[in-house]
Design a protein that fits this description.
Two copies of one chain form a homodimer. Chain A is of the alpha+beta class. Chain A is 58% helix and 7% strand. The first copy, chain A, has a four-stranded mixed beta sheet with strand order 2-1-3-4, covered by helices on one side. The longest helix of chain A is centred in the middle third of the chain and has 31 residues.
Amino acid sequence: MTLKVYADRMSQPSRAVIIFCKINGIEFEEVKIDISRRQHRTPEFEEINPMKKVPAIVDGRFKLFESHAIMIYLAYVFPGVADHWYPADLSKRAKIHSVLDWHHSNLRHGAATYVLNSTLGPALGRPLNPKAAAEGEKILSESLAKIESVWLKGNGRFLLGSLQPSIADLSLVCEIMQLEVVNEKDRDRILGPHKKVLKWINDTKNATRPHFDEVHSVLFKVKEKLKRLQSGGAKDETQSTLKSALHSKM
Amino acid sequence: MTLKVYADRMSQPSRAVIIFCKINGIEFEEVKIDISRRQHRTPEFEEINPMKKVPAIVDGRFKLFESHAIMIYLAYVFPGVADHWYPADLSKRAKIHSVLDWHHSNLRHGAATYVLNSTLGPALGRPLNPKAAAEGEKILSESLAKIESVWLKGNGRFLLGSLQPSIADLSLVCEIMQLEVVNEKDRDRILGPHKKVLKWINDTKNATRPHFDEVHSVLFKVKEKLKRLQSGGAKDETQSTLKSALHSKM
């Protein structure tokens, strides 16, 4: 039975899991769960993931959610996954767990809070919230600084001084990519000061091409559509503007 | 060279790691890092953990932080750790990763936000914030409901229907124990409705005795001291009241 991946490519952890499967030649069926249409809240999807979040997988009779846990599981059970994604070496593996744990309450918390409250909220039925956006940006900027000074310390092109990417690189870069939908000036202000981060994003893109670009294409489409809608008179990112951008994304 | 565990027993993930070592007979030296005295922000500790958080470990020349990553590492490298703490079975292991990942943005996020903003903040140099406390409580209560309906579904005494505890039980229960320092009426209001959670906390305590009680004794001391200070005229949990309770905790 083929592995099923329940995902919305507008969700950053969904993209990480899809890219991981594609680059490792894991056969899977992608089941689209459109968050902007609230498909993650249907009783059918609740049977797959009672937490009502994407991504989730079904492998035979085994169900699993949480993107880090999913990638670790896939690295274990699919023999084609190269060691660098989730190394057998215990100390390397432990450090990857450490990055991934840190990710939850730092980069992910900051970036998701910022993007939701500065840009995407209205499309998901929540008002924009400048105060929450500012708090998110603070955590995001501190996290980017820590990525540079701690995780990207040394000469390796990837996190933890590695020469090849791991599931941690993929998770964290997919998170930062979500900033593509944000106003360009704001994105440059936030990412601009972090040259090592920018280089690392590029290195991760290059190491996972062509899948990285293909899986992110929906994000770029939404970005372009938002730009057009805004320059065409809809100066504010209103609920209907965003919803129309999201609903027509595929 | 003995394993060093840098910890503050007032920190819930620190307690999880200490109890894990003790119950598994792992020899270690506990190095106290007193958060209320800002010892986690010294240059010496920054050498151990550049993120300035406890717990952290040093095993020979290997340094690691993030409590989940630490317990997984210890389960790998210390042969005395019983399988149920971090099962070799891939699907069981994957589900434990899923619980631990979920923990970060749900139970831990909610409980830590609530306790900090309702009670402990002033002792750590932050004012109380009733609005943030209310937001934390909402996430905490939703998380407790999910623990009951999802993770404690079935007949097992522990998470995921297990008959013996895993590192996920230990992490989550230590988090909930932090509510001991909160006003009794508030704690009962929050925990009271979740009978299955209360039973599971008790089962986890019983499975890890006497270490669970011993490692949590500092929390109970702070709780008693706070009660006495409050009933003795200091009606508000002022900065000095809390600081004195924390500083004299050992």
